[in-house]
Design brief:
Elements (H helix, E strand, L loop, with lengths): L2 H16 L8 H16 L6 H8 L5 H8 L5 H16 L5 E10 L9 E5 L4 E15 L2 E9 L3 H4 L2 H6 L11 H15 L6 E4 L1 H4 L2 H9 L3 E6 L4 E4 L19 E2 H7 L6 E8 L2 E14 L3 E9 L7 E6 L7 H8 L3 H14 L9 H30 L10 E4 L6 E4 L31
Parallel strand pairs: 1-5, 5-6
Antiparallel strand pairs: 1-3, 2-3, 3-4, 6-12, 7-8, 7-10, 9-10, 10-11, 11-12, 13-14
Helix pairs in contact: 2-3, 2-4, 2-14, 5-14, 8-10, 13-14
Length: 442
């Protein structure tokens, strides 16, 4: 194993953290936040308070708890600097903002926002917190930009319960699309992040105010919608396409019926992204329709090659001359945020926290997103250098003894096929290491 790599990584982490130091007015939280991120990345087991304290060289988790609960530091300033960092490393004019949520399973009732609600993490209604996230993807890589803790109305209407969890007294109930639009507006309007597209699932695509808000920001979207939605027919016929005789003029029709009636000439088989066994191929169809109260929009339909009733539907405000292939490619960029969630939970402890208060949740999630962004940027900058030594890298953890104090330090260097691969290299490039920081250093 090349020790120079570890020295480079630790130095890079220290330099990375320097850009955030001005948001920590005192030395203790400033130093502890760096140790916290290193612990999130390098902890061999579960990232609880004791484990993170041990990784930081502390005798007990008091400092970790002070960082989460009591230390004074500018959380929003740190977040904005994190977003700027992501824009510098991954930003592209054709980049895509992704809105989605993920669940954090909980057994108790005291954690801010916890409630019996549906989460895709468990695939059912269960006791959990739900975080709404803004992700980003481009040809340079993927990252999580922003986060909001979804607070159910049952929480907002219970002032005593909110007070116990330190929820701001003036916090109002916002739907998930409203939270998502706040984050998009902040990234695009306030911080001038690069990007042209927004993608999301039905939770966001079915909200007309969300679609309108994106259009007001001059962003193009490809958003999933439900099959029972009804749209109007655009008069006339595109050159080279046969008329839709099954669809009477001046009549609204559900998306599902439109898909069933489309002639074969509307469908095109396209390979749109690489899976574990090679490119994934679907049939796609695109046509212009009239969306109520919005006007003319693209209707994009995806159909499985094996199961014709396996359909997905999307609305887009893209230009009328946009190729269907481009719309299909943009629609599938949404899966990049699932990759970010998986990486951030596995590699940076996104879902491994023991905090209950509202502001502590935001602190942990922000530091975890920063750790994940650091790993993603490291992958990008070290890719060429890492290939030269990849053949000799060990796949599993290596224990290195510290003869000075007798403490055993763990250095983890996983295989290069495990970590994030950028879109342009997806399917054929080797990925960078997942955990490569030396932990336990003082």
């Amino acid at each position: 194993m090349d020790k120079r790599i570890f020295k480079t990584v630790e130095k890079s982490m220290d330099e990375y953290h320097e850009r955030f130091e001005r948001f920590f007015p005192r030395s203790e939280p400033r130093e502890q936040s760096l140790k916290y991120m290193k612990g999130l990345i390098a902890a061999p087991d579960r990232r609880n308070g004791w484990e993170l304290a041990e990784m930081a060289g502390d005798k007990c988790p008091d400092r970790v708890q002070r960082l989460m609960y009591r230390n004074n530091w500018d959380l929003e300033g740190v977040l904005d600097e994190h977003i700027r960092f992501c824009d510098e490393h991954f930003g592209h004019y054709d980049g895509t903002f992704i809105v989605d949520e993920t669940g954090f399973l909980k057994s108790g009732k005291s954690s801010a926002g916890v409630n019996r609600q549906y989460t895709g993490t468990a695939g059912k209604i269960t006791n959990c917190q739900v975080g709404v996230f803004l992700g980003y993807t481009s040809e340079h890589g993927n990252a999580l930009l922003d986060r909001r803790l979804y607070m159910p109305d049952s929480w907002i209407s219970d002032s005593k319960r909110c007070a116990r969890a330190k929820v701001p007294a003036d916090l109002q109930f916002l739907t998930k699309p409203q939270l998502a639009l706040e984050m998009v507006r902040h990234a695009v309007f306030d911080l001038q992040c690069s990007g042209s597209w927004v993608v999301g699932d039905e939770v966001y695509g079915m909200d007309p105010c969300f679609r309108e808000g994106l259009a007001d920001l001059n962003l193009r979207f490809v958003l999933a919608v439900k099959r029972n939605m009804k749209v109007g027919k655009v008069s006339g016929c595109k050159v080279g396409r046969i008329p839709l005789s099954f669809w009477p003029e001046n009549t609204s029709m559900s998306l599902e019926k439109i898909a069933a009636g489309l002639p074969d000439s509307y469908w095109t088989s396209l390979a749109t992204r690489a899976g574990e066994r090679g490119p994934i191929r679907y049939e796609w169809a695109g046509l212009r329709v009239i969306v109520p109260d919005e006007g003319e929009r693209w209707l994009l339909i995806r159909r499985s090659l094996k199961h014709s009733d396996d359909l997905s539907f999307y609305f887009s405000n893209a230009y009328s001359d946009t190729p269907v292939m481009q719309l299909a490619e943009v629609a599938l960029r949404r899966f990049a945020i699932e990759q970010c969630f998986a990486e951030a939970k596995t590699e940076a402890g996104l879902d491994e926290y023991e905090v209950r208060l509202w502001h502590a949740w935001y602190r942990h999630i922000t530091l975890s997103m920063m750790a994940h962004a650091f790993l993603s940027a490291l992958k990008k900058t070290l890719e060429d250098r890492i290939k030269n030594v990849s053949a000799n890298c060990e796949r599993h953890s290596q224990m290195v003894s510290n003869s000075k104090n007798g403490v055993v330090r763990r250095r983890v260097f996983h295989g290069l096929d495990q970590f994030q691969v950028s879109q342009k290299d997806s399917g054929n490039a080797r990925a960078l290491p997942r955990k490569i920081l030396q932990a336990g250093s003082k």
